[in-house]
Model the fold of this input.
Amino acid sequence: MIEFRKDIFADERDDNLNEIGKPTRRQDILGHVTGRSPFYDDHQFEGLLHLKCLRSPHHHARIRSIDTKPAEQMPGVHRIIQGSDVKVNLNTLLSLMNFGEDDEPVLSDKKVSYVGEPILAVVAETERQAFDAIAKIRVDYEVLPHVLDPEEALQPNAPLVNETMPGNAFPYHEKYNHQKLRFGDVEAAFAQADHIVEDRYQMSPIEQAPIEMCGAIAAPETNDRFVCYTSTQALFFSLGTAAKVLDVPSNRLHFIGGTVGGGFGGKVDSLHEPLAILGCMLTGRAVRYAFDRQEEMQVGAPRGAERWYIKDAVMNDGRITARKFTGYFDVGAYTRLSSYAIIKAAGHLPGPYTIPNVYADIYCVYTNRTPATAMRGFGITGVDFAIESHMDQIAHKLGMNPIELRLINSYMDGDMKAHRREAKNTALVECMQVAAEKSGWNIAPDFKAMSSHNGGEGWRSEIPHTVTDTNGQIGNGVPASTVRPATTSIPAYVPSQNPSYAAPPAQPARPVSPPTPQSNVQATPTAPPQASAPASSSTPKRPRVSRFSSISGTRRR
Amino acid sequence: MPMHSQVFSQIGEAAHALSSNRSSRYFGGGTLVMRQVNAGNQSFDTIIRSTDPSLKQVQISGDQVIIGASVTMSQVIASRDLDFLKSAASVIGGPAIRNMATVGGNLFARSPYGDFTTALLALEATVALSGGRSDVPIADFLTQRFREPKPLVISVSVPRPRDGNAFRFLKIMRVKPMGVSLMTIAAHLPQSGGRLANPRVAYGSMGDTPIRANAVERALEGKTLDAQGIAPALAVATEGITPRTDSIASEWYRREVAPAHLERLLLGTGG
Done:
């Protein structure tokens, strides 16, 4: 039962909307409930061939040699596809929007960096024949040391997971081995705080677990074109990726999708379409490449693991005057979409609260785990778990009502967010008021009377004097020395293996600028930190192609 | 190796085919075997089935009920004679799995599966094999189930509890419904004069096979079924048992939570 609280923001809303506030029928629901929706795997082709991949049994190994001879003569085998058959055998998904560097082979015949990484593909008349042929192929592996934890991966002597990414970290803005967010002066606020509250939070990878497993069928079409039926949730993204790695003009590819049997972000990565089409090109037959359930769980990219350290400066009255983050995104062996998730996270910090001093270093770290990718709200969900857990810890420490604590610190319309965007239509105050009312949670009359319209006054709308630094700078391709969250008193993560890693360098003492962070509203000219600086059209030309037009320049997935 | 399928109308023929071919597997309801087939398992290339109608029967024989190996979990749930096993059968997979999964097949499910077998173990069922013994104690059967030549199970005989409430079953899952077992507990708790007499407790997912909790049984003997009576049993909940570590839970976790779940089962506060 939906209740619309039309008394709130009544003057802001047009009530003549066609969809919002009205029941609506999903456009595809009739097909789904009558079993008539055509999924990619419902398309049948005469002489359809099946493609299966030989996958790495190791977290990390160099491939010395591959012997496919015993498999070539197996019954039903039409073709064995190797890395050398892929025209552009190195790709990164976001290259389609000029972000990041190609870092992931379609077929990895030199080195494997996670369990399940595809090494080659067999195209056969039945799946069984493809499996039987794969079982005959001999791969000589030189097993390499592996790293499965993001903080361990940033240690100076950690194994290099991805050769495109020195230091196992994605380079942001060609300058730093992490994404920076700087707003005000957190250290000055810490020095003045009544309480310091800090802790560490982490979450494991989450599999999207669609009912329909990822897959694609490609078949020859007239005029030297190829038709591709696919489960993708990003049809033109998949088309662009296939055109790039196969080095064919996109007008030779005819992609048909539209019915996705559950995606949730897990069907963006376009792993199947290029190989199915390549198999079709090499055999002249229709080729189907689909994950089985085991592959979907082990190889299909999940939401990645994250670890966050949060340190807050808190006053006795409940005001949070500074919040400092160190975040590690464990993105697995390859980038996929994770570099973007971190930019999104930086734009979200410090959560839906107005805090005058904010600091964040967020690392996109490569480990020998399954590459991570999109999943609903990726970049936001993990840190929101950390932030809201932390808010409850603060309330507990101060003995405060947790909703009142959030209302005290809530962002409001007109406030300046840490990424230099004005907060608009915040409505958090009203949301919490209604939530408290509905759940019978008592809040004081002053808090019941608050309004999200009353933000933007004084310091709340200003960009404060901001302390910047160059920690983690990358120079001429030399990996940056890693800076650990050294200012925390909570126990840092202790590496559980590879004790040969050297201790991290100590963080130099940071000069503390004059206090009074909240009253400092001078427009001191400061170089805007990289995190939030939107690249305007007047930005000087960059030699490389790794930038976004703005924080939200990419559609959410 | 292409996959072959052989269907026999007589159990004896199927048993012979199974025992004479090392690269064969028996297909009960297919919920275990087909998963291996679909993954391209190279260790077998022949599937053997039997359509013998006796495999589908449920018969009462004295104080025993004899369940054919091909009886599905859905049939168990629907059978009035097997009412006491309903609690176990209804937590095996979801409806689609229960329509296919068989009592005989469950005897071969590796941990963390095999919840129904855990129930049979607590009830001290016996297993009848084609061309072999007809009364193999289930605990013995479990230690040799994967040996060659492969046995073909015809039926299991289950002593019916005199008091229907004396049999209790609890499957602990993180995901509900249709979760994989973190720990399964089956207990047969007959009482005499208000005290437990010959109690039987079995755990699933705590080892490589369903196992009896012998220390718990000893500690419960002659005790009353209340907080005070069961306290010694809880103290030895995992004595002599090495819980497994898998993707569901670690050995440490299983050891820590076992007494709490055992207490809930014994006091009837679980579920």
In short: The longest strand of chain B covers residues 181-188.
